[in-house]
Amino acid sequence: MTVTTTMSATPTDGSGALYELTGITRSYSKGSVTVSALRGIDLAINSGEMVSLEGPSGSGKSTLLQLLGALDTPSTGTIRFAGRNLEHESDAELTELRSGEIGFIFQQFNLIPTLSATENVEIALIPRERSRERRQARAIELLTQVGLAHRLDHLPSRLSGGEQQRVAIARALAKAPRVVIADEPTGNLDTATATEIMGLLHELHEREGVTVIIATHDEEIATQTTRRIKLRDGSIISDERIS
Amino acid sequence: MFSLSYVINELRRRIGRTLVTALGLAAGVGLVMGIIGVSEGLSNAQNRVLSPLGSVGTDVIVTRTVAPTTSTASTTTTLPTSGFGGGGGFAGGGGGGGFFAGRGSTGLNAADTQTLLSANSSIITDLAKLGKPGTQFTHDFFVPGTLITFPTAALADVAKVKGVQSAVGALSLQALHETGTVPTQVATVKTGGQTISTTVKPPTLTAAQRLAERTCIQTAITKEFGSATSTPAAGASGNSGTAGTGRIGGGAGGTRGGGLNFGGISSNPAIAACLTPAQKAYQQNVVVPEQTVRQVLNAPTTNTATSTYTVAGVNIANTQSGLVTTQQLTKGSWLSSNAAVAKTEVLVNTAYATQKGYKVGGSITINSVKYSIVGLVNPTLTGNTADLYFSLNYLQSISSSTGRINEVLVKVANANDVNAVAKAIKAALPGATVLTSANLADQVTGSLSNAHKLANDLGGALAVVVILAAFLIAVLLTLSSVAKRVREIGSLRAIGWSRGRVVRQIVAETAGIGILGGLIGIGVGAIICVIIGAVGPALSVTSSGLTVGASAVSGLIGQSTTSAVSTTVHLTAPIHLLTILIAFAGALIGGLIAGAAGGWRAARLAPASALRDLG
What we know:
The structure holds two protein chains of two kinds.
Chain A: E1 3-5, E2 17-30, E3 33-46, E4 50-54, H1 61-68, E5 76-81, E6 84-85, H2 91-100, E7 102-105, H3 117-125, H4 132-145, H5 161-173, E8 179-183, H6 191-208, E9 211-216, H7 219-222, E10 227-232, E11 235-242
Chain B: H1 4-13, H2 15-50, H3 52-55, E1 60-63, H4 110-119, E2 136-143, E3 150-151, H5 154-160, E4 164-181, E5 186-191, E6 195-198, H6 207-225, H7 234-239, H8 269-272, H9 277-280, E7 284-287, E8 291-296, E9 304-314, E10 329-332, H10 339-342, E11 345-349, H11 350-356, E12 363-366, E13 369-377, E14 388-391, H12 392-398, E15 404-405, E16 407-412, H13 418-428, E17 433-436, H14 437-443, E18 444-445, H15 447-484, H16 486-494, H17 499-535, E19 538-543, H18 550-557, E20 565-570, H19 577-603
Parallel strand pairs in B: 9-14, 11-13
Antiparallel strand pairs in B: 1-16, 1-17, 2-4, 3-15, 4-9, 4-16, 5-8, 6-7, 10-13, 11-14, 12-13, 18-19, 19-20
Helix pairs in contact in B: 1-2, 1-17, 2-15, 2-17, 2-19, 15-19, 17-19
């Protein structure tokens, strides 16, 4: 196992840099107090990487995840995603980006409680796919892939945590994104289920070549990734590639 | 656009919230439907009550009511006592002074009051005349109430007014139907027994008369008793002429045997013939014989049940205008055009017939006269509908008002001239009450008028308040729903839903709720309207303009001073397609407003809220 530590923003393999972050800061105003969540982040993530972001609460990993997911924009610095400078993108363009290129997996699964498993996956396809039949077919295909062929019409409330997260993964994959961003994907799951979910993410990464970025404070999860980035107080304190 | 299945699932699976919001809107629009229905029902009721003036082709009604006095503008042209026609015309028609009398000083004017009392006097009568004490009696009295009668000649005067097309006379009377026991109460009055004395002094005789009288008496005495006579001094005393006393002379010088007794000189024809006429009178005491009079007093009202109804006279020759016309005949036929036949016939107001169970072909007996019911009519003229309609001439004859009417129904040639013509009639007939349908509408008071006002004034405001409350509830519920779905909405944004799509989705949901609320609301509104129609609250209409009736009479008797005619109409709440559309649109708009509020709130949510730790 070779461990390389690099602070370089240069792409390290042929597929090129998916993300290039330069001098990123992000501060929030809470009343009269300004909280700096990120204090100068320089980071490059290549296509096909499986990255873990580690750090305790308040380290800024959620903020970084939001920036990577095009849910938020930095206070200063630039984010380039697949060569696009997100700084200059409108809300509509960022929405477009999220609807096609970025898949999200949340700790709380964030499924729509009133929709069945199939419908929850379909929801993600609505902005892109007009045909309801094709949406449905794609949703069933994805749910079958994640092993939920027998749960298609179940409401989230009637699914176990692991099953809900599988639905969420299927939803994240629905639009064949270039990157999947997972926020503590196993945080609400028991160890056995967590292992299953991580297995799915690995499969996704290896078979589809999707870039996966996982925020976690579980070392076990982090060690399963190819690159571990540790954050503390809004700064990257270590960034190691495991090959 | 938005996901319909998402909307449907959202509404179906959050059925509680959906229903609460929808029911809020439903209650709102249902109430608004009810309010619209009631308002329209009141309008209908008012139209039904007020429009009939026009429907019988009558534009103006002329009556003569007891005028309250005080200064009104019209007094300027009014003669103080006899009003119109005072000089020649029709003044002095029975029952009082000139009709359309002028105004007096204070209170009811005296002439009018007198007329009114006189016209209604038939009711204040001796019931004992109706039968033997203790027996049952039934009698119907016809009185004009406060609509004072006037000679039919007034018709010609009205007809002369420019713009009047036709003027028809009518007689509306209040009938008091009294039943009870003939009272037995009597009073014993002793009269007579007085002694009446009078003294009459004949005038002193002239010397010639005295001489003639003496000579005459002497001649008479000589004739009777021979010439030998001792002319007593009594002669002088006789001469003194104490006329009228029973005796002349005295027995002073009279011989007892053949005593000359002049007693009864007057009874002696020969001597009596000598007296002057004045002396023939004499003093006498007259004793009035004692007499006991037993008389039944005026009827006490106890045990006498009075019910009232109204009767009116229609001109059998004119079936097209008047208080009731052939158009208003609902069953049977009109009064015969033959007066002799018509006097045995009667038309009955449909409502009264229903109430009394009268049918065409049946009969009604009034004061022992049997009238056959030939037809039912549905008169609509406000304020003076009658229960029974007789031939005008016949009614005049049985109510002691021959040749008299108390209403003139005027048709105006041009509808635009109604007010001008009414003014002209008023000027021509000072003291007359001239009513147009517009006046009539103004004079209508009572619950209908009040309710209609209420519906117009407050109903609109109430509807607005109700609908705003419903909207507010829908908005608040939607905002609360959006607040609960922050994570869900954030997730949608995160997985690529645009702001617009999220807003549309929420608006579509609330629009769905609005549609549901509209449908339920239409049901609620329909139920409200049906219930109102079924319960049919009675609305009374009081018209002070046309007053007929017992109220006026009882006012005279002192029981009541109000005099107004009331009509009752039952409220309905009609539903129209437009009302339904308004209700539905209202609910939908409410849903859209709520959706707009919720959408606005949702659009402000950052997509990152999906990631924030919200517990």
